[in-house]
Design goal:
Rossmann fold, binds iron/sulfur cluster, 2 domains, 9-stranded mixed sheet
């Protein structure tokens, strides 16, 4: 079983368009019915918008703990407000109350309360789902607004995808990674056999590509690069290509700017399925072929 993670240094580079196209293309060849998809962008999960899956299972995600004050026991001494470094406890009349959004779950207040009025409680921070899409099984999740532990939820989503892959003897997990280089990206990248970085030829895009490549190098995950909307700013495209050549990073293709991608998204379809002959679809097929060769999957040409 091998894992491919699709990454980008920032949001809006077309990462999910690429992942959804790969999900479609994986359903056509030797890999048909042997791939599991995982949407690791749990803060803004949108692969499901394109794959239109049907939920078959959903479970709560317990993401840490928060403090709770028992108003009947609280004497209003104010010690907890003083010890809370996250400014999460405030006076409310004769007692003190915890702001659940600001609470970091450190439990310092619990140890300092002289009358044991504060206890820690598990927090329901979101849900994770197993769904059937027209191209295969998708694991995805939704983190509640202002809740943390997205790295833990990414790990859970990937674990579920890997378990199904092992149980069913599938070959391949395709992971739509989160944007950026933070904790959820690290969770999405760890254990991957290969990363595809979707870059865009803007000054910010080039800078963010460098950062995400540093992350994959740190975790010893080999990386390939493709450039989305490569014809929009040729100078930026030339800069990315020169950088990849200098760093010995394989460039697997360029996707031209193509309104078909937006039209496909509006229709809730990968562009390769919506308009197979569109310039972007043809570029994506070539990139997919190169990525699959690089994955060296058994029995796949
Ligand atoms: S430390 Fe305990 S008793 Fe004092 S204000 Fe806080 S909750 Fe109330
Ligand atoms: S658990 Fe920590 S962050 Fe939360 S209210 Fe208590 S001291 Fe503040």
């Amino acid at each position: 079983m091998k894992q491919l993670v699709i990454l980008s240094g920032k949001g809006g580079t077309g990462k999910t368009s690429v992942t959804s196209a790969f999900a479609h293309l994986s359903s056509l060849g030797d890999l048909a019915s042997k791939v599991v998809f995982a949407d690791a962008d749990v803060d803004a999960s949108n692969l499901e918008l394109v794959l239109s899956p049907k939920n078959t299972k959903s479970e709560d995600f317990i993401g840490g703990q928060i403090a709770l004050v028992d108003a009947d026991t609280c004497t209003g001494c104010g010690i907890c407000e003083e010890v809370c470094r996250f400014d999460a406890i405030h006076e409310d009349g004769a007692v003190y109350l915890v702001d659940p959004i600001a609470c970091d779950g450190c439990a310092a207040c619990v140890y300092q309360c002289p009358v044991d009025a504060i206890t820690m409680h598990e927090q329901n921070a979101g849900k994770w789902f197993r769904s059937d899409s027209r191209y295969g099984t998708l694991f995805h999740a939704a983190l509640r607004p202002a809740h943390e532990n997205s790295g833990k939820l990414v790990t859970l989503v990937k674990q579920q995808a890997r378990l199904l892959t092992l149980d069913e003897n599938y070959d391949f997990v395709l992971v739509d990674g989160p944007p950026g280089i933070g904790c959820p990206v690290i969770s999405a990248t760890s254990g991957a056999d290969l990363a595809l970085i979707v870059s865009e030829p803007t000054a910010a895009g080039v800078h963010d590509m460098h950062r995400v490549l540093e992350t994959t190098a740190h975790f010893d995950v080999p990386a390939l690069v493709c450039i989305n909307k490569s014809d929009v700013y040729p100078k930026g495209t030339a800069e990315i290509k020169a950088f990849c050549q200098a760093q010995d990073i394989q460039m697997v293709g360029e996707i031209p700017f193509d309104v078909s991608v937006t039209e496909a998204m509006v229709q809730g379809q990968p562009v390769t399925d919506f308009l197979p002959n569109a310039p972007s679809s043809q570029a994506l097929v070539k990139i997919w072929d190169k990525v699959i060769k690089e994955m060296q999957l058994d029995g796949v040409q």
